[in-house]
Amino acid sequence: DVKVTQSSRYLVKRTGEKVFLECVQDMDHENMFWYRQDPGLGLRLIYFSYDVKMKEKGDIPEGYSVSREKKERFSLILESASTNQTSMYLCASSLLSGSLTGELFFGEGSRLTVL
Amino acid sequence: AQSVTQLGSHVSVSEGALVLLRCNYSSSVPPYLFWYVQYPNQGLQLLLKYTSAATLVKGINGFEAEFKKSETSFHLTKPSAHMSDAAEYFCAVSDSNTGKLIFGQGTTLQVKP
Question: How far is A37 from chain B (nearest CA, A)?
């Protein structure tokens, strides 16, 4: 089975701190995604990557950056956390063809609270 | 551009009753449509998908969905709700240009004993 692992399930940070959210997948998937989940808004795409060292902005990239140095690892970075970034963050991966067929595999999520 | 609307942010049914979760989409081309489920404190998992084959799609855990082009709908149904079906359900459409998934707002299903 595909496993997508997010390193932290719960984090509490202070305004202005730099935050790293790590995601690792074990199935050699080309695509990786970071979503933000908020009540009533569904999932919104922050950034995605189709290959190592490649990244593309999603729908809400402001205030975030990403890093993909290795195929299996995709990191989300909040350079200076703000309270409006308090949310659930979901990482997902898929095969290249899966990006068109919708078969995303999700991690369990990282719930971030910024005080 | 494609979009998805889920009607009703919360749906409550009794155990054994019919489950109906509504999803309407907009797309200028034949879409790929999906339902994902998120159980409490977990990530999302694929429930079923429509990729232009049969219009009635069967998924896991007894769920199914019917693609109706004339109504631009892809509603999710299950004949008899079980307590374990309590979760949040997301409808999604695949963007035909980028392959990205566009999610609806989600519907929380409550199952009462």
Answer: 9
Q: Which of A40, A102, A107 sits opposite B9 (nearest CB)?
A: A40
pLDDT in tens, A63-109: 999 999 999 999 999 999 999 999 999 999 987 655 556 688 999 99
With an 8 Å Cβ cutoff, are B103 and A43 in contact?
Answer: yes
Q: Which of A4, A48, A101 sits opposite B100 (nearest CB)?
A: A48
CA B25 to chain CA centroid, nearest Å: 11
CB-CB contact of A94 with A35 (8 Å): no
Nearest to A40 among B49, B92, B105 (CB): B105
* Torsion, Cα of A27, A69, A64, B26 (10° steps): -40
Instruction: Answer whether A7's CB lies under 8 Å from A19's CB.
Output: no
Residues comprising chain A, all counted: 115
Q: Which helix (H) or strand (E) holds A98?
A: helix A98-101
Strands A10-13 and A110-114: what pairing? parallel
pLDDT at B31: 80
Q: What is the pLDDT of residue A23?
A: 97
Closest residue of chain A to B104, computed from CA coordinates: A42
Q: Compute the nearest-CA separation of B56 from chain A (Å).
A: 17
| pLDDT attached to residue B23 | 96
Nearest chain A residue (CA) to B43: A108
The residue with tokens 């997010």 is: A6
SS3 A101: helix
